[in-house]
Every structure is written in structure tokens, then in C-alpha cells.
Amino acid sequence: MSLELISLENIQEFAHHYGYWAIFFGILLENLGIPLPGETVTLVGGFLAGSNELNYWIVLALAITGAVMGGIFGYWIGRLGGWSFLLQVGKIFRFSETKLLSIRAQFSENAAKAVFFGRFFALLRIFAAPLAGIAEMPFAKFLIYNILGATAWASLMVTLAFFAGRVVSLEQLVAWVSQFAILALLILVAVIAIPLWLESRQVKQAAED
């Protein structure tokens, strides 16, 4: 999922000029919690490796390293200042601290899955690490799932672009991956939201009876 102000052409230009550094910092900053198109950066890196402009193994190593380091920074941002920030945001949207504590507890129960699988979902990839910090997920546990998730995600994206980029255009590949990430996010939201809505409805009906 990319920002409209950062086009695919801009990313390609940066990658051509700065090579591996563009790949590393693009992915690191997104995983840090900054809404940059890290997914597109990774695909561009794999595509350039497939066209022999960059080395596949270096691109893969930098993608994994950038994702892991960004996740660690994002975790500590959430751990050290995320909760107080969330409380302030909650006041704006009229979420009580009790409600936020309940949400944090629910996330904490599924934090490991969120950190690992979150990299494959649009937006969740940006917020999973800070949310894990806010939920006070043990750092050692976070680090394990952060490394596993980063490795799985980077390997899939770089390898996909490396091979698929030889038969389809980079623009088409980025479009397909972005559409899949958004669709996956919508399905995830539905899977989470529908049971919560049904539970809330049942509680309301029970109270009325």
C-alpha cells in the first residue's frame, strides 16, 4: 500500500540512484511506523535483482534487516510512549481508558500472530510493532516473531518480484500485490469485526430482556 505522493516512478528513480540504500531505508522507515510504501520498495528491489541491476541475495538481506530493525524501533516507540499517546487519542474519540485497556488485552492475546502475519496486510504492517510495544509484549518473544515475520515477508516479496518481474511489468505486479494486501486487510477486519458486532448485539438483547 503506497502513498499517492510517492509514485512507483519516484521509487524506481531512488532505487536507480541510491541502490541498496534506497531498499534498506525504505523498508526500515515503513516498519518503523512511517506510512511509506515499503512493500513497493521491496518489489522494486526484487525486480531490479531480476534484471541483474542489483544482487538478489543483498536485496533480500537488506529487506530482512530493514524490516527487523524497523520493527524493533517501532516496538520501543510503542512501549515507551505509545500508551500515553493512545490515551490522548482515545479522549478525542471518546474511548474510555477501561475500553482501551480491554482492547490492549485482546491484542496482547494475539500479539505474536499480529507481529508475524501483520507484515502481509496493508496498514497492519506499519502498526503491528508499535501496537506490540503498547501491549507490552515481552521483547524476547517480539524479537523472535519479528525476525520470522520479516524473513517470510521479505523472502516472498523479493522472490516474487525476481521471477514474476520477468513475465509481467513491474506496474502490474505492484498493482496485483497492493490489491491483494488491501483485500486481505478487509477480510481480516470482517473476521474480527463481525464476531464483535454479534457479541455486542447479543449482550444488548440480553440486557433488554
How is the secondary structure organized here?
Elements: H1 8-18, H2 20-31, H3 38-50, H4 56-92, H5 97-109, H6 111-117, H7 124-134, H8 139-164, H9 170-208
Helix pairs in contact: 1-2, 1-3, 2-3, 2-4, 3-4, 3-8, 3-9, 4-7, 4-8, 6-7, 6-8
Overall tally of domains: 1
Radius of gyration: 19 Å
The rough form would be described as globular
| Helical content (DSSP H or I, runs of 4+) | over 70%
What's the β-strand tally? 0
Secondary-structure class: mainly alpha
Main sheet specs: none
Order of helices and strands: HHHHHHHHH
Estimated share of beta-strand residues: under 5%
Separation, N- and C-terminal Cα atoms: 46 Å
The poorly predicted ranges are 1-5
The helix count comes to 9
Average pLDDT rating: 75
How would you summarize what this structure contains?
With 209 residues, the chain is mainly alpha-helical.
